[in-house]
């Protein structure tokens, strides 16, 4: 039962300023810390100075704690009253609502700004996605990132029921008949900008391992089945995965070869009757691999690289790899030993695996750009809040020019990334698959390189702004520490940064007109 809060004057609170009778005010709320002080992680002595005991400690509190501390039940119950005639105004964000911090949201969805891309349908969709993420996803994300367990199946089920798993595959027939976020838009309305909005909202809890744990194996591993699978396989597996019943991973990279797909060593040889493949080899860094039921596997065959769908079963072993993010992502090392697979599981023509794999890359890299650009923005928001509430040398941190210069750089990079991303998204919206492959592989490669380089600059600057807190896993800088530790993932997964930059330039050189001379 919640206790009755008292209405108190500041004068009344001031009388409780002794070790055995100790109250403080934080944001118009009165807390009795008499007993708590001996359990306080920051020590008891911090409560005793005369400007804290019985006084308003709001500024001191927010210089040292995140707002969420006061929301935890064990601390919330320390509140005994509220100051007469005052209201508490600080909140750590209202679930489902846009942040009011400048640059915390893409300009296109920020109130007062205009956009050539976002319509009322996108904005409505964004609000529904934000609510889902804040209320359902974020609590699970934080808990699983902490304990390293895979995302809770109940949450995956809710993602499936709301069409989220299906929407991460982009617009298309697979959305038909689904209720998207409780019917907030119709399946035929869903376009690339809805997809962009969704991809960015899903990142907001800033739990990088968990984010990859939410079926991102399927986001990259299912399209080859949608586009190249035989109808009977496609129908069964796509439905099982998008309804959250089964999990699937893309299994291309190996200890022997990553970005260089032609160097893969996993082999598939046909049985003498030609009815099965026998697969042998290993795969490494396979997202969701520890818990996936299906694997979309790149194999060497007589006719060259071939992509084959493999079901978990005899001869398939997966074990967890420890990476710098949490094991919620299920990153695995996989061994295939004489795994027998029906020939019908071949995806696309034999020997055409490079095309099957490459045709997927644009969408995968674009989706990673969506997340990368959003994560940069989240760090800008954290830094803006921190420099505003933290004092150093008697002044707020933002009064230091060097801090403002860092923020200027961070904000510019974040805005540049988002605007370039939105332009590419607009191109995707108006191009068919073939045009995208021809015209967008280079720009998407360059964009991803730009985002991951900028993200690493932002991570480094954010650590400087947060100081020791930026390298501490709990407390004020916990998101900065997490970001700085996990930001290299984007620079590696889906094509290493340098390889992608090079791809963009090589494509430009290839497209140079013969008559272009200085
Ligand atoms: C109801 C009031 C308060 C509660 C519930 C509370 C709770 C906590 C908690 C949970 C931590 C661990 C770090 C974290 O999770 O952020 C902490 C750390 C700390 N607290 Fe408090 N606190 C309160 C008020 C204060 C006040 C008024 C001061 C200073 C005047 C203070 C000074 C500190 C310090 C110095 C630390 C260590 C910070 C660090 O390691 O960076 N606390 N407090």
UniProtKB/TrEMBL annotation:
The protein's required cofactors: FAD
SUPFAM superfamilies, sorted: Acyl-CoA dehydrogenase C-terminal domain-like (SSF47203), Acyl-CoA dehydrogenase NM domain-like (SSF56645), Cytochrome b5-like heme/steroid binding domain (SSF55856)
Residue intervals of the Cytochrome b5 heme-binding domain: 5-84
Protein's name according to its UniProt entry: Isovaleryl-CoA dehydrogenase, mitochondrial
One Gene Ontology MF term: flavin adenine dinucleotide binding
Family (UniProt): Belongs to the acyl-CoA dehydrogenase family.
Family matches, as InterPro entries: Acyl-CoA_dehydrogenase, Acyl-CoA_DH_CS, Acyl-CoA_Oxase/DH_mid-dom, Acyl-CoA_Oxase/DH_mid-dom_sf, AcylCo_DH-like_C, AcylCo_DH/oxidase_C, AcylCoA_DH/ox_N, AcylCoA_DH/ox_N_sf
GO cellular component terms attached to this protein's record: cytoplasm
Keywords from the UniProt entry: FAD, Flavoprotein, Heme, Iron, Metal-binding, Oxidoreductase
GO biological process: fatty acid beta-oxidation using acyl-CoA dehydrogenase
TM region(s), chain numbering: none
Source superkingdom: Eukaryota
PROSITE patterns (UniProt xref): ACYL_COA_DH_1 (PS00072), CYTOCHROME_B5_1 (PS00191), CYTOCHROME_B5_2 (PS50255)
This protein's record includes keyword Transport: no
Keyword field contains Oxidoreductase: yes
